[in-house]
Specification:
A five-stranded antiparallel β-sheet has the order 4-3-2-7-8, with no helix packed on it. It has a four-stranded antiparallel β-sheet with strand order 9-10-13-12, with no helix packed on it. A three-stranded antiparallel β-sheet has the order 1-6-5, with no helix packed on it. The protein folds into two domains: 88 residues, Immunoglobulins (Immunoglobulin-like), CATH 2.60.40; 76 residues, Immunoglobulins (Immunoglobulin-like). The protein has no helices and 15 strands. By secondary structure, the chain is mainly beta. It is rod-shaped and about 75 Å long. InterPro entries: CD200R (IPR040012), CD80_C2-set (IPR013162), Ig-like_dom (IPR007110), Ig-like_dom_sf (IPR036179), Ig-like_fold (IPR013783), Ig_V-set (IPR013106). It is a single-pass membrane protein. Its main location: membrane.
């Protein structure tokens, strides 16, 4: 999320037409087209953040600027050339790294939160805990995972919360 992404589409000799067909999980269908015989480009229902990376007659790559969850979906490049039609499809999934917070609750138990991640993060502790993480799903498709350390008879000195996520792992420590 927040970065730019470039999807490659190979130009063939004697290309006559290049079309990107974009079908996001949410929102409307979008197309970018290029006709070689008229050296003309066309776009239908595409946001400003989705466009050709360079000139489509030289390189028909697609660039998505400031990638967000709204960009998730299928991206298909179709090239029509004298030697045939060629298709390449990408399935874009957007990872959102969670924000890690760690605090002590009213009973002196460490509480670890992996806020607004996509997919949901996994939370563990450096010591064995019988904590069951709970998930809160947000409207934008992100998920907050909360885990409270609940081992009885454990010295709560320097407890370490470990958050595992495809966008990167994090850890923090706290004394309650």
């Amino acid at each position: 999320v927040g970065n730019s992404s470039v999807l490659v589409c190979s130009l063939k000799p004697n290309t006559t037409l290049v079309t990107w067909k974009i079908s996001p999980k949410t929102g409307g269908f979008c197309t970018l087209g290029y006709r070689a015989d008229q050296n003309k480009t066309d776009r239908t229902n595409c946001s400003d953040s989705v466009n050709w990376k360079f000139r489509p007659d030289q390189d028909p790559a697609l660039e998505i600027r400031q990638v967000g969850i709204v960009h998730e979906g299928n991206y298909t490049c179709e090239v029509v050339a004298t030697e045939g039609n060629f298709h390449r499809t990408y399935h874009l999934t957007v990872l959102v790294p969670p924000r890690l917070t760690l605090h002590c609750d009213d009973h002196g138990n460490p509480v670890c939160e992996a806020e607004a991640g996509k997919p949901p993060a996994q939370i563990s502790w450096d010591l064995e805990s019988n904590s069951t993480p709970r998930e809160e799903v947000h409207d934008d498709g992100t998920v907050t995972v909360v885990s409270t350390f609940t081992a009885h008879g454990t010295n709560m000195t320097n407890m370490i919360c470990i958050v595992s996520h495809p966008a990167g792992n994090q850890s923090k420590s706290i004394t309650c």
